[in-house]
Write the structure tokens for this entry.
Amino acid sequence: MSIPLFWIVPAASVLALFFAFFFFRKMMAESEGTETMKKIAQHVRTGAMAYLKQQYKIVAIVFAVLTALFAIMAYLGFQNGWVWFAFLTGGFFSALAGFFGMKTATHASARTANAARNSLNAGLQVAFRSGAVMGLVVVGLALLDISLWFIVLNVFVNEANTAHKLAMITTTMLTFGMGASTQALFARVGGGIYTKAADVGADLVGKVEAGIPEDDPRNPATIADNVGDNVGDVAGMGADLYESYAGSILATAALGAAAFAANTSVQLKAVLAPMTIAAVGTILSIIGIFAVRTKEDASQKQLLKALGRGINLSSILIVILSAVIIHVLGLPNPWGVWMAIVFGLLTGWLIGKETEYFTSEAYPPTRNIADNANTGPATVIIAGIGTGMLSTAFPVLTIVVGTILAFLSAAGWPVGQELMRPEVVSSGLYGIGIAAVGMLSTLGITLATDAYGPIADNAGGNAEMSHLGPEVRKRTDALDSLGNTTAATGKGFAIGSAALTALALLASYVEELKIGLHRLPEKMAEFESFLGKSLDSATLMDFMEYYNVTLMNPKVLLGMFIGSMMAFVFCGLTMNAVGRAAASMVEEVRRQFREIKGIMEGETEPDYASCVAISTRGAQRAMMVPSLLAIAAPIAMGLVFGVSGVMGLLTGGLAAGFVLAVFMANAGGAWDNAKKYIESGAHGGKGSPAHKAAVTGDTVGDPFKDTSGPSLNILIKLMSMVSIVMAGLTVAWSLL
Amino acid sequence: MSIPLFWIVPAASVLALFFAFFFFRKMMAESEGTETMKKIAQHVRTGAMAYLKQQYKIVAIVFAVLTALFAIMAYLGFQNGWVWFAFLTGGFFSALAGFFGMKTATHASARTANAARNSLNAGLQVAFRSGAVMGLVVVGLALLDISLWFIVLNVFVNEANTAHKLAMITTTMLTFGMGASTQALFARVGGGIYTKAADVGADLVGKVEAGIPEDDPRNPATIADNVGDNVGDVAGMGADLYESYAGSILATAALGAAAFAANTSVQLKAVLAPMTIAAVGTILSIIGIFAVRTKEDASQKQLLKALGRGINLSSILIVILSAVIIHVLGLPNPWGVWMAIVFGLLTGWLIGKETEYFTSEAYPPTRNIADNANTGPATVIIAGIGTGMLSTAFPVLTIVVGTILAFLSAAGWPVGQELMRPEVVSSGLYGIGIAAVGMLSTLGITLATDAYGPIADNAGGNAEMSHLGPEVRKRTDALDSLGNTTAATGKGFAIGSAALTALALLASYVEELKIGLHRLPEKMAEFESFLGKSLDSATLMDFMEYYNVTLMNPKVLLGMFIGSMMAFVFCGLTMNAVGRAAASMVEEVRRQFREIKGIMEGETEPDYASCVAISTRGAQRAMMVPSLLAIAAPIAMGLVFGVSGVMGLLTGGLAAGFVLAVFMANAGGAWDNAKKYIESGAHGGKGSPAHKAAVTGDTVGDPFKDTSGPSLNILIKLMSMVSIVMAGLTVAWSLL
């Protein structure tokens, strides 16, 4: 702990949380507008908090069971005694990030709508500041948890060998990543089902059948829809990105501890590098957030430019400062590691641009889907699925090129057979991890520009329900669509970092095997006699040899089949859950229109509560099976097929899941914007047959892009995290 | 060539072709019915042949280019001089199988319709016999090509070392598998795009907008639709199964040559086993076909039973006789190998049952999709995608269990570390191959029960257009739906064998690396000094070690990403092709209804030719890119990432492609039957809003189940075949 640079991590954490509080207070100081606006905001707030409470109750039960399991495993000697506690804090902080984000968002919507009554710019200021709260809370809490655990474990872990100690500390800290992932998966799946059931139900009856606008107060599902935006797009996203951010830092720290175990002083530097880069990135994010300023009469284009300026400033500064950090730390091959960070940032940026190309109405792919609306819903769906599948080529190739460059540069550009020397592989894998950290280092500001979208969306809902003038709705829509463009970049970073982090976690898994073997003297002796060297000097490649993790091992290949299947089954379960809940919602809204007199005339208030109840029930029932499957699959695989099967499962799940996630996100995004393009007047505009067909596409795309797709990113990492935590057991026993 | 049992292979081939001719003559002896029926059949026949000719022209160009490439590679010493010629014959025979199948089908449709005027049973006899022609032509031609090449290469290959000679013969024969796969991919993709463009276009305007029945002669796309059934479902399927059948036999023979290279007499037996089992299975198929007899007044249920009896008889007999064959051949571990065959058959049967469960209207999943039609097209699509994704769990788990059992039984039930002994792995992989051969051994009859479906479908079209009474249409529909049930079994076998064959091909790839190294003295020396043993004594595992084909190699992992992406991009391209051509078709049909007076009144004949032209153009333009991509990807991967990248590509493509194929086939099948279920009267029946929604689902499902899904099975194998043929180049040079 001699390196003072570490203290920048808790400092950045405190700073981030302080500014989050500052922005929160500034937002709260704004007026919530008219009495109706306040009433509606209160409705949504209460509904959202009620749901979140319900969800946390269920998650708490799951956490209690898993914690007990870990405690038993620690008792039996398969794990160290810190695991269960680290797991709990990860889940707790992830939940907290979601909770604060949602609290802010539900307070901000009416305030944003009210500010938008004055000007677009005023609306942006409120929405963006609230988004900044979310961004800073996520990174602040993650850095806080990381710093605390790093300090605590440094003090309490009893281990004379420094190299071992750091390995134990970093792998134990990974467990808190598993807690975060588990909580995030529940939040994304539960929130995603909730919001899309309401959204689909509201749209199908309201927009398509009854022909009333979105968020019309006569639609019984409106409140549920707005609650859904908060629990899904805000709380779900917060938990999700908390997981990504913490996961990438923790995985890289663990890889650093493993890669440089031979040299204790370098090892500590390699562990600290991801943390300090993230900490500096956080400070730069705060600077970037303050740089987002516009003139009072700014146009939409100028607003977009202002947002871009903030992000670009932070990104350029992190490129420069990470070179400084690496040199100050004194990492070996500093420029190689620095280039890995740059490749990571470039990869994320490129994927964002590609996402924008494939999902923005300004480009041919989405226009083509809109064209297909002229021939009905079937061709819209076919075109969307076709385009979405095709679009996977670009992010995948970008990730492949980015990863290989990050690997090679961090490994010092090895060639030929040299590329596979164990120490080359270790430092290359560290490069992949650090690229992910680089990509996410400025999450504070990218998340701010991402999170204000749903806030603006909700503000629009509030404006509609409060019968504010159409110009207010127009302004909130403009903010929302502004958010969509910057959100594409955010999505690129989220997807790209998920792939890189999952690759890094794979290497951490192998490291965890080593620790597992250390606990089992008999197995360790077997291992050492097989390889003819000591466990401590065993390289990643030695583990591959001992456990036969090659592509000629049927257990690896069949594990890959199951991993690939897991991604599809997981999506199938979540799609079906949305479908089921949405169908109940449709029936309920139809029933209310039929049975409650005077809704359409605006004389009677519809029964909002029954729709909220349908979404809540749908989400709670359906989130258990997919989430538990994600936890159970790697455990079961380890018990039956052993280490090689687990690695097959993880890689198969990663390869298929990543591509499937991109497909679903892009198809969903493109359908959404094709519909918006038609609503803006193309192909006959609102109410035309083409519009009706496009709404069908958008509806199908809703669970694609907001439930199944984003959950996949978490699934991939959670399966790795579970395998890591369970490695001790897998090493000890498996059927085949 | 001393083992006389080999001669059963050419004998079975001749027998199959003889009976194919016999059934063809019997079918041709039937009457084609009224003048109108003849005229319409002639229309469809001419259209289908015209398209096939066009397609073969394009394929011929591709083959010319590839053959030239192989000739150059042989000249440069990367391949032996037989490769290009074997490649050509594979393509030629595959095309021939499709051509004969289609010729039969186009002659049979009017005859089936005419026979159905008398009774259901009479219709079945004609349709089933025509299906039998297809089944027997496919297996007969495959066995012919295999016998000829085996004899020719045995005579001409100059190699003193018998073990080497057999390895060279079997791997050279694999090249003819590549020819078959290439042709099959073009046939499936081109035919699939053709038929679904016509089908989707005809349905969307005819059924949904104009409200006229399927195959109504007033619909301008009707002829194109019926032509499409022939070029897609018949010629495409014929080429496809020719490829599967030949591929599984050839891959297993190559594995046998590799696994038992140490003992020349066992080696020959292991090579002959798959061929003789397939030959005996063919003879049993002929017996099974004759066993399909019914009373003149048989009910639909009795007909189904009769078909089942034929298949079951052949299957039970092959289980018994394969035990005899294996013992007569004198293979080591005979009962273990026999059990692998039984596991293969059981796996195929189980997947068939699972397919039926998930796609038949008799079971909850499809009923549930139909229920979702009450809430519109969006929920139908969501439910279909969700259910389709979910359904992948069962075939994947079945394949995993079946494969591991086939592996373990053929390897003599090894345990623990023993499971990875090189000779254990080799014989286990041979077991996987032989399981695939067992699964496909009775293809003669399973294909017969599969192929008569489209014939009955076309007969229905002919009946409709010839204004025969509704009872005829009802009978052909009954035959078609009868076919759907047996086709589920056929699909199970096709999907299951594709996965197993692809796994076997993976091992053949490694064997081909050995042959490639033999040609490069310098590389061979490097290899031998690295491993400290001679190339000839190197095991599969040694290759894994030398080329670092482990899951810690980034080239393997990134190769997997690209493989997984390939499956999605391929589907995206084919989906888009169908979407584009279908949209043109919709516009054209709408135009004709609008501009040509008197179509609706039946006074003017629509312009069928322009619709045929749209489908032809759509198919021809769009089939090039996906097909060439499948060939180019493994070559490019080899040049950039080398052997480890190629193996990553193949396994990633296999794991994701297999699951994606099951998803698409099941979702498409379930949508189809959900629509049929509603048409049979549920949820308001034909013309209800639920029906309209279900038609949208069916339309989206059309390219899923008949274009993209089935092409994926070929894609997976073609990529492996290309890698095998190009292995010499990959071994010689790669960038990283």
In short: The radius of gyration of chain B is 25 Å. Chain B has a mean pLDDT of 91. Chain B touches chain A through 97 residues (CB under 8 Å). Residues 16 and 554 of chain B are 49 Å apart (CA to CA).
